Amino acid sequence: MSDDKEFSSSRRRFLGGAALATGALAAGRLAHAQAGPDPLITEMQPWQQYLGDGVDARPYGMPSQYEAHVVRRNVEWLTADSVSSVNFTPLHEMEGIITPNGLCFERHHSGIAEIDPGMHRLMINGLVDNPLVFTMEDIMRFPRENRTYFLECAANTGMEWRGAQLNGVQFTHGMIHNVVYTGVPLRLLLEEAGVQTNAAWILPEGADASAMTRSIPLEKALDDCLVATHMNGERLRPEQGYPIRLVVPGWEGNMWVKWLRRIEVGDQPWHHREETSKYTDLLEHGEARRFTWVMDAKSVITNPSPQAPITHGPGPTVITGVAWSGRGTIPRVDVTLDGGVNWHQARMSGPSLDKSMHRFYYEFDWDGRPLLLQSRAIDSTGYVQPTKDQLREFRGENSIYHNNGIQTWAIDESGRAENVEVG
Ligand code: MTE
Ligand code: CO
Description:
Helix content: 10-25%
Distance between the termini: 53 Å
Number of domains: 2
Shape: globular
Radius of gyration: 25 Å
Bound molecules: ligand MTE, cobalt (II) ion
Mean pLDDT: 90
Strand order of the largest sheet: 5-4-13-8-9
CATH class of the largest domain: Alpha Beta
Low-confidence stretches: 1-24, 274-288
CATH architecture of the largest domain: Alpha-Beta Complex
Oligomer: single chain
Largest sheet: 5 strands, mixed
CATH superfamily of the largest domain: Oxidoreductase, molybdopterin-binding domain
């Protein structure tokens, strides 16, 4: 009896609170009022009664067993085999701006090269005064820098060009990660070799079985590229190019050659070997968009989204997502609840770093009616993330690469989210 009374009065309090203006959080609205004895409070739980693992049990720590679902995932039908394939970062399970090393999506053309760093070398040859070979120890004798950058595959969101396809932000937007790199500025290694005056391009090459290469303008190489040895404070993971990878800030992921073994300096871009070029983003573009390296501003709501529905019902609700631009920072993100009729400025939280992921939030009081959620990033150059229709108008129906269009999630009364497009 008294339980019921407690419950109904707390429920009244909750509903009363819901009438308040958005933003003014009344005391007691967001937790359960004490409705009676709760065994999770009144009873001793197993973990309170027995000793736990000691400090020797977990020499390299892993997430809680209750987070085992937070993993990279593959979409089997997307590619013919797992060696030349891709998996996706679980963006809907993440917070802040840094991608943990074990969750960074992987894109390999010929699988992961497992390299003994003692047997790895970096060669710089071509239009240089002194062709050089560096050991990994040599590289650690150059001054190094720490910088945070996103890496986005140019094919990210590529399946969504013609219309809504994949039902989850992990699959529509998960070919991206954001990492603190420690690395040697490529400029210092090139200066050590002495770049000749007629040089204009570099050709980094990977040591994996695909021997992946990409032509990169020398200007970019001398500006902000890094030869990275570490990610998020530890050595690069084998999946991400251990022992060294090229970091090409703000530019498409394909250029960030992993397992970097050679850099050739030349005076013009290379014609890429057929067996690698058929996979590279560059040559699959029409001629008009041949050199489209920068990743334009983009954002997406990560929660709620199809893999992360609203389960708590109406009332105070947190929307969050990420935004990034290959041209600078993201000072502002707007969020709409009604498919673009009304836009609200989101709250940015966390470091705002050049060519890095940004985190945004929008808190509101959900009335339980269907929503059409979208986010729109505006970068530090003033560029505004376009709608998918605006992109298609400009680039046609048949593109795959560089889809930075606005994403829509439809939320129904039960809180379920679906990938849709609104006109
Ligand atoms: N480098 C080598 N050597 N081999 C590769 O297959 N894939 C490229 C690039 N560098 C690749 C590579 C592509 S297409 C992308 S999108 C990024 O690496 C992916 O980097 P990641 O695996 O760290 O996510
Ligand atoms: Co790629």
